[in-house]
Specification:
Blueprint (H helix, E strand, L loop, with lengths): L4 E8 L7 E3 L7 E6 L6 E8 L6 H49 L9 H17 L4 E8 L2 H8 L1 H18 L5 E6 L2 E7 L1 H4 L2 H13 L16 E7 L5 H17 L5 E3 L3 H21 L3 E10 L5 E12 L3 E3 L1 H11 L2 H21 L5 E5 L2 H4 L4 H12 L6 E6 H6 L1 H14 L2 E7 L6 H6 L4 E4 L1 H6 L4 H17 L2 E4 L5 H9 L4 E2 L10 H6 L15
Parallel strand pairs: 8-9, 11-13, 13-14, 14-15, 15-16, 16-17, 17-18
Antiparallel strand pairs: 1-4, 2-3, 3-4, 5-7, 5-8, 6-7, 10-11, 10-18, 11-12
This protein binds ligand C2E and magnesium ion (2 copies).
Ligand C2E binds next to strand 11, helix 9, helix 10 and strand 15.
């Protein structure tokens, strides 16, 4: 018997038919080819090498042996290919699922994103055509997320968003969905049983679950209090977008009504949104058309009760609606960019007025509110310098009022933009101090001159020992850092007396004077003039 063997070779890209073909049989060996059963482009060939003993029996045995061998090999080859194909299919399947998940879920929280939420709302709407089904949408927006993000940094902000998503997911039923629409906006879809109890209860439980302070694992010692506003829309609509839009309108109403609450959509709310749009259009005319004007609210020395300065507060004389206060139109002006020309107007008009008082011997400190949107711009220092130069006002008589959140937003850029006015001698005040996530560290970085203690603490003083001790702490902080402290919102004599006891230096509030016209301010310039109803210190 000569040497005998079987060689197995794979020739890629040889397209062949699905046959087991023999190039023989030849007594001295042969080539058998097997097509690729698994469908890849190639051909397996099995070559029998070596000669065989002659004789019919021997040949029959060899052929039988060969056939058996080929069958076993074929089985192994097919299995091998089928397995790798299976692996490939599984991989493709997993990758597709992953991509689909990424396309339909929010990367940070893993919750459904807007696309998937819209799709689910569409499905729920379709079901209502077949069966009576109660369902609703809750739009949830975190009121103070931006402040937390600015104060503690994006990493902690992201952790907080994840934690919020987890809490929401924990309170809904399996048939409901929680999603994230982006930023600090979440959505909850509720259907059937969950809603039977009424959407109020669902919204209330969302507010409750979020009101518990958050302790992040990365910052366990700092409890974060989150406030949320919720807009709810319930019931059938022609399409998903309409239901979501109504929930958004209700959310807007909740924010307008003072945040930290839920509002259920009613059709007339759509009108309110249109109103806002109309106001936005009108505001463009207001700035150019001279409808804006400035009132001045005096600030005074708490010990002597003499007027020490005025704060410029803008008003809008609307041709049809009458006089509108800044709380109604400043947010619109900020969103639409109109705050820039508006801010320039207030700055130049009030500087002109203060310079006029000054040149007639009635020297008074002028405070002007500055929006974060103004400070985002590189031309802000030029606006301030321009208003001072045009009016001739002594820069040391001007104070810019900024809120804590503005200072925290982009600290380095903000410090830079405030440097030029500082170099001219302009002062800086922190407005509504104590309401933001104050980080005392920034008081050292920012060249601040005045802390304006928020009126909510002054208002709470009478009933809250905590408010009293907070004011005490802030006044002491001011003294330590060499800053003036001014208490806002003094409405009653008892508040005035308490603040005098606490040795707060300055005050502002309706008790002394509300915001008034420039000519009404002039009456207060008389030496040692004190408004008639204000009791002088005894
Ligand atoms: P603010 O800077 O904290 O101004 C004080 C606000 O408190 C004023 O409201 C004032 O009328 C009110 N106020 C004063 N004393 C009392 C008091 O004793 N009790 C109560 N309850 N309130 C008092 P106003 O004029 O409606 O302004 C509201 C806010 O609008 C201002 O708060 C300020 O943030 C903003 N604002 C006003 N004018 C301008 C402006 O020209 N530019 C910018 N960016 N914001 C402005
Ligand atoms: Mg102010
Ligand atoms: Mg204030």
């Amino acid at each position: 018997m000569r040497d005998f063997g079987i060689r197995l070779a794979y020739m890629p890209f040889h397209r062949a038919t699905l046959t087991l073909a023999s190039a023989g049989p030849r007594p001295g060996g042969g080539v058998y080819s097997v097509t690729d059963a698994a469908g890849t482009n190639g051909q397996w060939s099995i070559t029998v090498v070596g000669g065989l003993a002659s004789g019919a029996l021997g040949e029959a045995l060899v052929v039988g042996f060969l056939v058996l061998g080929i069958a076993v090999l074929l089985f192994l080859v097919v299995r091998l290919l089928a397995r790798s194909r299976q692996r490939a299919l599984t991989l493709v399947d997993e990758r597709t699922k992953e991509l689909r998940h990424q396309a339909l879920h929010d990367g940070l929280t893993g919750l459904p994103n807007r696309a998937l939420i819209v799709d689910r709302v569409g499905q729920m709407l379709a079901r209502t055509h077949r069966e009576p089904l109660a369902f609703g949408v809750l739009f949830i927006d975190l009121d103070n997320f931006k402040e937390i993000n600015d104060s503690f940094g994006h990493h902690h902000g992201d952790d907080l968003l994840k934690a919020v998503g987890e809490r929401l997911a924990a309170i809904v039923r399996p048939s409901d969905s929680v999603g994230r629409l982006g930023g600090d906006e979440f959505v909850v879809l509720v259907q059937g049983n969950s809603l039977d109890a009424s959407p109020d209860i669902v919204a209330q439980s969302v507010l409750e679950v979020l009101s518990e302070p958050f302790r992040l694992s990365t910052m366990p010692d700092v409890p974060l209090s989150v406030h949320a506003s919720i807009g709810v829309a319930v019931g059938a609509r022609p399409d998903a977008d309409e239901l979501l839009r109504d929930a958004d309108v209700a959310l807007y109403q909740a924010k307008q009504a003072g945040k930290g609450r839920y509002v259920i959509f009613r059709p007339e709310m759509q009108v309110a949104v249109q109103e806002r749009l109309a106001l936005e259009m009108d505001l463009r005319e207001a700035v150019a058309g001279g409808q804006l004007f400035v009132l001045y609210q005096p600030t005074f020395d708490l010990a002597s009760l003499a007027m020490t300065g005025v704060e410029a507060l803008v008003r809008w004389r609307h041709p049809r609606r009458g006089v509108i206060g800044p709380d109604r139109f400043i947010p619109i002006a900020e969103d639409s960019g109109m705050i820039i020309p508006l801010g320039r107007f207030v700055l130049s008009e009030s500087c002109r007025q203060a310079a006029a008082w000054s040149s007639s011997g009635r020297v008074v400190q002028l405070s002007v509110n500055v929006s974060g949107r103004q400070l985002e711009r590189d031309d802000f220092p030029a606006d301030v310098a321009g208003a001072l130069a045009d009016s001739g006002l002594d820069p040391s008589l001007l104070t810019l009022e900024l809120t804590e959140s503005v200072l925290m937003r982009d600290a380095d850029a903000t410090i830079q933009r405030l440097q030029a006015p500082r170099d001219l001698g302009v002062k800086l005040a922190i407005d509504d101090f104590g309401t933001g996530y104050s980080s005392m560290a920034y008081l050292r970085r920012f060249p601040v001159d005045v802390l304006k203690i928020d009126r909510s603490f002054v208002g709470a003083m009478a009933r809250s020992p905590e408010a009293r001790s907070l004011i005490h702490t802030l006044v002491q902080l001011g003294k330590t850092l060499g800053l003036d402290t001014l208490a806002e919102g003094i409405e009653e004599n008892t508040q005035l007396e308490e603040l005098q006891r606490q040795q707060c230096e300055y005050g502002q509030g309706f008790y002394y004077s509300g915001p008034v016209s420039a000519s009404a301010v002039e009456a207060l310039f008389a030496p040692a003039h004190i408004p008639p109803h204000v009791s002088a210190k005894t």
